[in-house]
Design a protein that fits this description.
Layout: H1 10-20, E1 23-28, E2 34-37, E3 40-41, H2 54-75, H3 82-95, H4 97-101, H5 104-110, H6 114-120, E4 126-127, E5 130-131, H7 133-147
Antiparallel strand pairs: 1-2, 2-3, 4-5
Helix pairs in contact: 1-3, 1-7, 2-3, 3-7, 5-6, 6-7
Length: 148
């Protein structure tokens, strides 16, 4: 049985919170999806008519992390450190487990090529085919955490 951290650690949570930012009211994300809190995509059956409190936003983030943590543990076939798991959670929280599933990052990781996997974070810095400064910073921070 492989050893995987069960939950996102504090470093991973702080990384996600930093790059997602906190918005207590509904807003449209970069691709026009209704969002609230720390990057929570509002589902059709959810109503957020009133602003969130900071505590409610944190609870919603932790709830969102649970499904991503399960997906990540199913995809990864090698043992991970807490820092590696946290970095991958930052990636999965931002892009979804489907993107990781089909990525060279995951192929390298599962082949035990940890340095090549770390470098693959940097490939995922584009939107609409163009590098974005914010995504470049986020992917560098994830890579740094992965390698720490």
């Amino acid at each position: 049985m492989l050893e995987h951290p069960e939950r996102t650690g504090q470093d991973g949570i702080e990384l996600i919170k930093h790059f997602e930012g906190l918005r207590l009211r509904r807003y449209l994300d970069a691709v026009g999806k209704p969002t609230i809190g720390y990057g929570h995509l509002i589902l059709p059956h959810e109503k957020f008519d009133a602003p969130l409190t900071a505590g409610a936003a944190e609870a919603l983030l932790k709830k969102d992390l649970r499904s991503h943590e399960l997906a990540l543990r199913k995809l990864v076939r090698v043992a991970l450190t807490q820092q590696q798991f946290d970095a991958l959670m930052g990636f999965v929280f931002n892009l979804g487990p489907g993107r990781l599933r089909s990525s060279t990052l995951l192929r390298c990781l599962n082949a035990g090529q940890f340095e090549r996997a770390a470098d693959q974070f940097l490939v995922w810095n584009k939107a609409g085919g163009k590098p974005l400064a914010g995504l470049t910073k986020r992917r560098q921070a994830e890579r740094d955490l992965f390698r720490s």
